[in-house]
Design brief:
The complex is a heterodimer of chains A (about 400) and B (about 60). Chain A is of the alpha/beta class and about 400 residues long. Among the domains of chain A are: about 10-110, OB fold (Dihydrolipoamide Acetyltransferase, E2P) (Beta Barrel), CATH 2.40.50; about 130-265, Rossmann fold (3-Layer(aba) Sandwich); about 360-395, no CATH class. Chain A has helices spanning about 10-20, 65, 105-125, 150-160, 180-190, 215-225, 240-245, 255-260, 265-300, 300-305, 310-350, 350-355, and strands at about 30-40, 45-50, 55-60, 80-90, 95-105, 140-145, 165-170, 200, 230-235, 250, 360-365, 380-385, 390-395. In chain A, the strands form three sheets. A five-stranded mixed β-barrel of chain A has the order 1-2-3-5-4. In chain A, helix 4 (about 150-160) runs parallel beside helix 8 (about 255-260). Chain A is rod-shaped, with a radius of gyration of 67 Å. Chain B has about 60 residues and is mainly alpha-helical. Chain B has one domain (about 5-55). Chain B has helices at about 5-20, 30-55; one strand spanning about 60. The longest helix of chain B is centred in the middle third of the chain and has 28 residues, at about 30-55. The mean pLDDT of chain B is about 80. The chains are: A alpha/beta (about 400), B mainly alpha (about 60). At the A-B interface, strand 7 and helix 9 of A face helix 1, helix 2 and strand 1 of B.
């Protein structure tokens, strides 16, 4: 600036404004500070300052952005403010124009928790392969939870209703507020010194959503090394805490935790009576089938009637005898038939055979066979021999065959 | 409880007994022996549950 020249106030402020507006790094600022001098203007704008131990900056949040703040902003709050730096030229002041804010504590815890969760996840603490099976027939169940809560009473009642023979150990602990995670660790340490089949970690109800103790890294790491399978029963929203993630099973209600940790008495009674039924059936089938085999053997005819042992043979013998007789008779009859046949053929050749067929023999008075009319005279006595006798007669006429 | 009850072990033994008896090959005399053992297990487990029902399990508070 040359000698004798000067800025007006307006031109200097404008120059400063242009410098600041030109700096990109001031356009998107994330600023941590404590709220002071907060004024909530009737128009809906917030005017306040953000400060730390040494320094202070003015801040303004206009109605549109301010109306989106979810919590009740007040002096003393540690916040993270998001916004840009600008100059208010009329007043010659610069300030942060805030567009959104979050409570520092909460935001930071959520971010840290997310980081811790990712780290433990990458270490494999939440792997399915690490999950141990919950005992089906537990001898003793440990419960870590708030003393005297309704949830624990409910849990114990349900466990006893389902499986009354189980021993229940209660390890009371703080579950929220200062020192809760240390107390949970102490209770867990006590539990590991008891002979437990299953360990249930519960919050014990309460409206307060302070789950910080169940996100404690030391506690989560301790639970991951537990010999005893763990059921988490922290809240209705499963997998809400790191303890949920590291537990072997998660239950959303005390009743669900009881069901996960015990068998049902009535099902056991049924199982036992079904076993008895099966043994009875099987044994009675076995003895029945044995007695059937015995009966069928005992019914063998030779036990009832010893004669049956030789009766068959004697029947065979009889049959053989019949066959022998028949054979003998047949061979006799055959022989007989042959003889008769020969005789018939012989008969056919004999003159007497001819007589049977209706021919006759003529003899003269002296028994000489007449074969020509020349051999007899008219009036001579003749005899005609037929099959069954002799006819005596006298010759009346003789006629010679003309061409004979 | 006077007797040492181990549900897991006793039920496993019971299941083994039932399966063996149901098998076709086991002689009757052996089946009867196993049957008696099985019945004794059933009785002891049922008794254990019933006793406990009457007497509701102990609750120990460890501070």
């Amino acid at each position: 600036m040359k000698s004798g020249e000067f800025y007006t106030v307006s031109s200097l402020n404008l120059h400063i404004k242009e410098l600041l507006d030109g700096d990109v790094s001031l356009r998107y600022v994330r600023l941590k500070g404590e709220v002071s001098n907060l004024k909530k203007h009737p128009s809906g704008h917030f005017y306040f300052s953000l400060k730390d131990e040494k320094s202070l900056i003015s801040a303004v949040m206009f109605y549109g952005d301010a109306s989106r703040v979810k919590f009740d902003l007040k002096d003393g709050d540690e916040i993270i403010a998001y916004g840009s730096i600008g100059v208010y030229a009329q007043r010659g002041s610069y300030q942060i124009y805030v567009t959104s804010i979050e409570l520092f504590g909460q935001g930071s815890i959520l971010i840290e928790l997310e980081k811790l969760k990712r780290r433990l996840y990458e270490e494999g603490l939440f792997d399915e392969s690490r999950k141990r099976p919950i005992a089906v027939y537990p001898r003793a169940i440990g419960i870590i939870t708030a003393r005297g809560s309704a949830a624990i009473a409910d849990l114990i009642k349900n466990i006893q209703r389902r499986y009354p023979i189980v021993q229940i150990y209660v390890f009371p602990s703080l579950v929220q507020g200062e020192g809760a995670s240390k107390d949970l660790l102490r209770a867990f340490d006590l539990a590991t010194h008891c002979e437990l089949s299953t360990l249930i970690i519960g919050r014990g109800g309460g409206a307060n959503e302070d789950l910080n103790a169940f996100n404690d890294e030391l506690l989560v790491r301790a639970l991951a090394t537990s010999r005893i399978p763990i059921i988490s029963a922290i809240g209705h929203e499963i997998d809400n805490t790191l303890v949920d993630l590291v537990a072997d099973e998660r239950a959303s209600t005390p009743t669900a935790a009881a069901e996960l940790s015990t068998p049902d008495k009535h099902e056991l009674y049924e199982l036992l009576s079904a076993s008895l039924e099966r043994m009875n059936t099987s044994l009675s089938n076995k003895s029945q089938s044995l007695s059937e085999r015995l009966n069928s053997l005992a019914r063998q005819p030779f036990f009832a009637d010893p004669r049956s042992i030789y009766e068959a043979k004697s029947r065979d013998l009889k049959e053989m005898r019949v066959r022998l007789t028949n054979a003998m008779r047949n061979s006799y009859l055959n022989a007989n038939r042959e003889v008769r046949a020969y005789r018939q053929r012989l008969d056919a050749l004999s003159p007497f055979g001819v007589l049977r067929r209706g021919y006759s023999i003529l003899e003269d008075g002296e028994g000489k066979v007449v074969s020509s009319i020349e051999e007899i005279e008219i009036g001579q006595d003749i005899r005609t021999i037929v099959n069954d006798g002799i006819i005596k007669s006298k010759v009346l006429v003789k006629e010679k065959k003309r061409n004979g | 409880m006077a007797k040492e009850i181990n549900f897991e072990r006793d039920l496993a033994r019971l299941e083994e007994i039932v399966a063996t008896i149901e098998g076709k090959t086991l002689p009757l005399e052996k089946s009867i022996g196993l049957y008696q053992e099985g019945k004794a297990i059933i009785k002891s487990l049922e008794d254990a549950l019933k006793d406990a029902e009457k007497k509701i399990a102990e609750i120990i508070t460890v501070e």
